[in-house]
Design goal:
With 160 residues, the chain is of the alpha/beta class. It has one domain: Rossmann fold. Helix content is 26%, strand content 32%. The chain contains four helices and ten strands; from the N terminus they run E-E-E-H-E-H-E-H-E-H-E-E-E-E. The strands form three sheets. A six-stranded mixed β-sheet has the order 4-1-5-6-7-8, sandwiched between helices. A two-stranded antiparallel sheet has the order 2-3. A two-stranded antiparallel sheet has the order 9-10. The radius of gyration is 14 Å and the shape is globular. The termini are far apart. The mean pLDDT is 91.
Length: 160
Amino acid sequence: MDIKIFSVGGTIDKLYFDQLSEYQVGSPSVRNILDGLPTAFDYKIESILQKDSLDLDDQDRQKILECLKKEPCSRILITHGTDTMIDTARCLQEIPDKCVVLTGAMEPASFQSSDAVFNIGVAVGAVSTLGNGVYIAMNGKIFDPLNCKKNRKLGQFEAL
């Protein structure tokens, strides 16, 4: 089984440089995570954008949608910032013939306490087993993007 992984930025890929929390969105952290594991699937990683999700706009979402429409692989994982992940997932609903799973992290993958590795693992399991549709994999659960929200106070996603 092949999985195509698209990175669009977000906290999962952030690199911090000083105590003032100055950051930039770096290269896809999913590469370092998966390359260091004995995976039983083939994957290719492509960076579409390197933006904080709060900076994504409708043009960016259209670019993501067009990339997915052109992609021949039917199993797609997207690493994305958590603040607007639901907005992007809803935009991708018109893709009928692929399984698309979005995931991210509440802390950068480079942080010891990050949930990035866990969320990517859940997302890989989801994209490997679910039928066609668009899903969000966060906090050990799979969510329907039309029926979930990010609870900033608890730092997790939850069903409505």
